[in-house]
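Design a sequence for this backbone.
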């Protein structure tokens, strides 16, 4: 059992909103979180076929049995319930009546926007954050072990072999979730697409190139990418919009949410292989970007992240706003701090006038330093970034 950073926000939301919804990927810990946070509420899983059939065929009677409210797990299995829940919460006018969870935000968000707008507090729960593993004293000893294992709670809880568990996860995802989110007929092609996307995590996204590599059209690649986003497998980071009179990259970057899944799809089968793998840099960058995103979502902050890159190759890996500050973060997979690590940050500071206090370098080593150009943080302290 892990203390999830988002739990206090769920309790606060339940004091104000009649419905609280927790969305996220399969096996991210949604069920455990809501049951631990709302132990007094009756728990109903719509994954159970009989329960799903009851909720679908007789929703009024189903909800009448839950007059005191309930936790409804995997509510996208019975999406019509949302319209009936709307009637109940409008009539009762009580906060915290229903807590909903869902694994696929595409279907659930569409239903919520139509039925529960203004009545629901939305929350996203991704797999464990580094900070949560540290609090539980469950953090693997090395960076390579962290990247290889990933952050799905079940792997850590049961000390499972990541490759075995993630192999089953991918098979279930492709054969079950993808079919339900979008009508993907060619699962072999989609599997190739998934692995091609993994090879592009941390890179500029070119949909035409991606489609060509998988033997699909540009439009199909775009549609399938939306499936990866809707099922919380991958996310997109857009380029920073201020050009400072420079020609900028306009294409986004692609990242996976979990490095364990990324390593599995890249064919990495041992933690020690990461040190010499051609994708070590992109895997480390994926880890860092995912951790920053999780930290924001767990605290209910805007999920806006950007990268900045001009046509000359000058780049800042991550840019985000904190109040009136513009934070710039450079990510380096090397363990030894080298002088050229600061080249891009120095360029950024000259270009934007950014103060040293707003610039950070996160690296794969163990040293924390206060340099003239930026604060240097080891990977274990990425949660020390200002938010």
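Sequence:
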């Amino acid at each position: 059992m892990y203390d999830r950073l988002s739990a206090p926000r769920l309790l606060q939301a339940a004091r104000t909103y009649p419905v609280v919804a927790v969305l996220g990927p399969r096996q991210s810990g949604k069920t455990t979180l809501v049951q631990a946070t709302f132990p007094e509420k009756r728990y109903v899983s719509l994954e159970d076929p009989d329960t799903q059939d009851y909720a679908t065929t007789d929703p009024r009677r189903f909800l009448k049995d839950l007059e005191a409210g309930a936790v409804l797990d995997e509510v996208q299995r019975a999406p019509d319930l949302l319209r009936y829940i709307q009637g109940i919460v409008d009539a009762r006018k009580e906060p915290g009546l229903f807590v909903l969870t869902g694994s696929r935000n595409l279907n659930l968000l569409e239903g919520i926007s139509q039925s529960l707008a203004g009545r629901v507090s939305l929350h996203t729960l991704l797999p464990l954050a580094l900070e949560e593993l540290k609090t539980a004293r469950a953090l693997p000893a090395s960076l390579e072990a962290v990247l290889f294992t990933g952050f799905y709670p079940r792997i850590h809880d049961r000390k499972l072999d990541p490759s075995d568990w993630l192999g089953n996860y991918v098979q279930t995802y492709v054969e079950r979730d993808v079919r339900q989110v979008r009508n993907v007929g060619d699962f072999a092609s989609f599997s190739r697409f998934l692995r091609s996307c993994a090879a592009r995590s941390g890179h500029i996204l070119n949909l035409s190139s991606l489609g060509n590599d998988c033997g699909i059209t540009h439009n199909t690649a775009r549609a399938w990418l939306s499936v990866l986003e809707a099922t919380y497998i991958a996310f997109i980071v857009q380029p920073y919009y201020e050009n400072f009179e420079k020609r900028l990259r306009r294409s986004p970057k692609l990242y996976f949410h979990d490095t364990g899944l990324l390593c599995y799809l890249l064919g990495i089968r041992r933690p020690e292989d990461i040190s010499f793998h051609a994708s070590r840099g992109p895997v480390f960058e994926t880890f860092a970007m995912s951790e920053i995103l999780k930290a924001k979502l767990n605290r209910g902050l805007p999920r806006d992240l950007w990268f900045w890159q001009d046509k000359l190759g000058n780049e800042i890996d991550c840019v985000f706003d904190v109040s009136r500050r513009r934070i710039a973060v450079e990510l380096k997979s090397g363990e030894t701090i080298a002088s050229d690590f600061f080249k891009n940050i120095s360029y950024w500071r000259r270009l934007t006038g950014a103060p040293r206090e707003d610039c950070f370098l996160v690296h794969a080593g163990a040293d924390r330093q206060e340099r003239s150009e930026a604060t240097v943080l080891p990977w274990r302290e990425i949660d020390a970034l200002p938010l």
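The radius of gyration is 22 Å.
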